[in-house]
Design a protein that fits this description.
The protein has 22 helices and 23 strands. The chain is an alpha+beta fold. It is globular and about 95 Å long. The two termini are about 60 Å apart. The site of one zinc ion has 8 residues, from loops.
């Protein structure tokens, strides 16, 4: 019998359907933890496919490092004593794997085709062979799991070892004879389509252990860095429990990009300038023109030009039109997809979730790829023929499919693992939500890459008003080319000017001056932030979206374009203050990129995992010593950052500060805490603590991020706040903090009516 191991259940199901046709399903376990395996016959051999749940092994510290204390940090860096053990949360999956594997005579690793997939395949082999550890070898086997023994700050610390394991041998019992596991093969496919899967199974290869080691080294390094820096920052600033300050190897340099941009904005000094604009009219059509000089640096110069432009009519002095070719965009890789989709308002993390499910449904190819060049072997025509059955683009797809020769655009990145992201199937029922958006985008981009360039006519119209030259620019799509299908995702290009000739005249409706200021650099949108991360080598195609999401979840950033919170700013500046003299800045993108390069070299077999981990330990040790010398400063910065984030505005009663507080139950509310430096007053009720402020409180929404707007409510005068759902999702919601405000009555009346 042949055992096929995939990374997820849906891939196992799909492969069984493709190879077997007739599939019977066995359910293992019960309730929510149910795991399925799929039995079928492939090439006359009984086969079973089963999906894992991503990684089933993890890197852990020994239990001695479980307690959060500044005392252990040096040891954690110097002798981290890591072990690679079975993930306790995968127990049900592995019990199912044991049952499904019974009697197997061959093993096929069919995990995703990338670095993490290679490591997951390696994990499965270790477990099947009985070489995987079930707990850290230096830990005593746990007798019984005690409730509430997990300790605080578990999230970044080593989770407890798998519960309920027997004493003695720390290895998981073998599931198959070593000889069977040694004969394993690896299949690699880029799309869950019959063509790809059949071809992969017809020509299997072997697991690439170097590639798996590269992924494994990332786990080791990220665990040490994350645990040490998170614990240091949290303990230094007395933030425990769910409020711990998460610091990550890639996360911090990413936060730095956002914070640096914000600090640039704050340091920006706007410079005033003036513009002169005029509104013209001809044959009932209006046209806006601007002074040909553009910006005037002084008011005097602007005034003089305005005085010179007093006339009833404007005369056309020149009209130029120049056609320009706009080439079709290159094929999609992960970054380009995320960036394009975020332009339509879908966050990178959501794009990747939608793309992942489209892949598992066999609608698009594997969405984690750097490649922007279609390999010659790719069946472009097959995809086009399929798309001819998808109504929104049917005509274009059919026309291209019938074309004798297909020419595609190409990008600058060529890799051999996966093709660029392209559609491989057509949905049987209508898609909805993010899936519909991402599928539409992938399909249109694919067609665009096979269509010719667009020809855009750039237009320039020069007129004279009095003595002063003015001009207007416009454009017209002369030949749509790829815009035939991609216009909704491309820059707007159809803004034609009226067709006139030199000597023609317009009537002047209005000439006026506008006073303006130069603008600070704009904040990163989520799309450009992802692109910047790729450019600097921060993270990988598989991790970037999650890293950004994490910044939102930890309350370091908010909104889109991405704006840091004061806590986020404090974290980065605290690092800066401490690490000024560090030989390598551990929160810089150079450092992160250096480790990424070393991981690439592991996958090429040029470096070993322990060498790269040791290098990273050294960098971390330097940094930690410097941080340790600045503990008081770090504490003060974080405290004041948090305080600013939590101040909503001024109390209407007493002029004190209205701040977000948390009650004993963890519920948040707004309360007046009095003025800065105010002495606490004697309590109104005997026995209570003396308090600052006037005693005013308001309930607050319990979900989402709350930020001050700086405005006060027009109805009642209390501060207005903004509430945004987690992850910059959803529309921000501005409301008055006063629960009894008349504006709420209106709001309630409106919502009542609409329901
Ligand atoms: Zn007050
Ligand atoms: Zn109000």
């Amino acid at each position: 019998m042949r055992l096929i191991v995939t990374e997820k259940d849906s891939a196992a199901r799909k492969i069984a359907d493709i190879l077997g046709g007739k599939v019977s399903v066995t359910e293992h376990g019960s309730g929510r933890q149910k795991v399925k395996s799929y039995q079928f016959v492939y090439e006359d051999e009984d086969s079973v496919a089963i999906g894992l749940r991503g990684h089933v092994m993890q890197t852990v510290f020994p239990n001695t490092y479980r307690r959060w204390s500044l005392k252990y940090l040096g040891d954690m860096i110097e002798t981290p004593d890591l072990a690679w053990v079975v993930d306790g949360g995968a127990a049900t999956t592995l019990a199912a794997l044991r049952k499904a594997a019974k009697g197997a005579t061959s093993v096929v690793i069919a995990t995703d085709y990338d670095r993490e997939g290679e490591l997951i395949g390696h994990e499965a082999l270790q477990i099947l062979r009985g070489e995987a550890l079930k707990r850290h070898p230096n830990d005593k086997p746990e007798k019984k799991k005690k409730a509430g023994s997990a300790g605080r700050g578990r999230a970044a610390a080593a989770p407890p070892a798998s519960p309920g394991l027997e004493t003695g041998d720390p290895h998981v019992k073998a599931m198959l004879p070593a000889a069977v596991v040694d004969r394993h093969v690896r299949v690699r496919y880029s799309a869950l389509t019959p063509e790809e899967v059949n071809a992969a199974f017809a020509k299997p290869s072997t697991v690439d252990f170097n590639l798996a080691e590269a992924a494994h080294s990332r786990q080791d390094i990220d665990l040490i860095w994350g645990a040490v820096l998170t614990r240091f920052m949290s303990l230094a600033s007395y933030r425990y429990g769910s409020d711990y300050l998460s610091v990550g190897r890639v996360q911090s340099p990413t936060l730095r990009l956002v914070v640096d941009r914000e600090l640039e904005r704050r340091a920006f000094v706007p410079v005033p300038y003036w513009e002169i604009k005029a509104t013209l009219q001809r044959e009932g059509e209006k046209l806006e023109v601007a002074h040909a000089k553009g910006r005037f640096d002084t008011l005097e110069a602007a005034d003089a030009a305005l005085a010179g432009a007093q006339a009833e009519t404007a005369e056309v002095t020149a009209y130029k039109a120049r056609p320009r070719k706009v080439p079709p965009p290159p094929p999609f890789n992960t970054t380009a997809l995320m960036s394009a989709a975020s332009g339509t308002g879908v966050s990178p993390a959501r794009v990747m979730r939608a793309a992942e499910s489209l892949y598992l449904d066999g609608l698009i190819s594997y969405p984690r790829t750097d490649n922007t060049v279609y390999p010659p072997s790719l069946d472009l025509r097959g995809s086009l023929q399929a798309l001819a059955g998808w109504q929104p683009v049917a005509t274009t797809a059919a026309r291209l499919a019938a074309q004798e020769k297909l020419t595609s655009s190409r990008g600058s990145k060529r890799t051999t693992d996966h093709p660029p992201i392209y559609p491989v199937g057509v949905p049987k029922k209508e898609l909805s939500g993010d899936q519909a958006r991402v599928y539409d985008l992938v399909v249109r981009r694919f067609l665009a890459t096979l269509l010719p360039a667009a020809v855009i006519e750039g237009q320039r119209l020069d007129v004279r008003i009095g003595e002063e030259p003015f001009l207007a620019r416009g454009s017209r799509v002369a030949t749509p080319g790829f815009l035939e299908v991609y216009e909704k995702y491309a820059a707007k290009r159809d803004r034609p000017l009226p067709s006139v000739e030199p000597g023609d005249t317009f009537s002047v409706l209005d000439v006026h001056q506008e006073s303006k200021e130069t603008q600070p650099p704009s904040r990163y949108g989520q799309g450009p932030l992802i692109e910047k991360m790729e450019e600097l080598g921060l993270g990988t195609k598989a991790t970037r979206a999650d890293i950004i999401q994490h910044l939102y979840d930890r309350n370091y950033v908010r909104d889109n374009p991405v704006e840091p919170t004061e806590l986020g700013v404090a974290l980065v500046t605290a690092f800066d203050a401490a690490l000024q003299k560090a030989p390598v800045d551990i929160t810089s993108s150079e450092m992160t990129a250096r480790l990424e390069t070393e991981m690439d070299r592991i996958s090429e077999g040029e470096l070993r995992r322990d060498e790269v981990v040791a290098d990273s330990q050294q960098m971390l040790e330097h940094a930690w010593k410097l941080l340790d010398g600045h503990i008081a400063d770090i504490r003060e910065r974080i405290k004041s950052g948090v305080r600013e984030d939590l101040t909503l505005g001024e109390c209407k009663n007493c002029g004190g500060q209205l701040r977000v507080l948390r009650g004993k139950t963890g519920k948040r509310f707004a309360a007046c805490v009095g003025k800065e430096g105010e002495e606490p007053k004697a309590p109104a009720v005997e026995g209570e603590r003396p308090r600052r402020g006037c005693g005013q409180t308001f309930p607050l929404p319990q979900r989402g991020t709350i930020t001050p707007t700086g405005n006060t409510c027009g109805e009642c005068g209390w501060p207005e706040i903004k509430v945004v759902g987690g992850g910059g999702r959803g529309r921000p919601w501005v409301l008055c903090v006063d629960i009894d405000c008349p504006s709420k009555e209106k709001y309630r009346a409106r919502t009542k009516k609409s329901t």
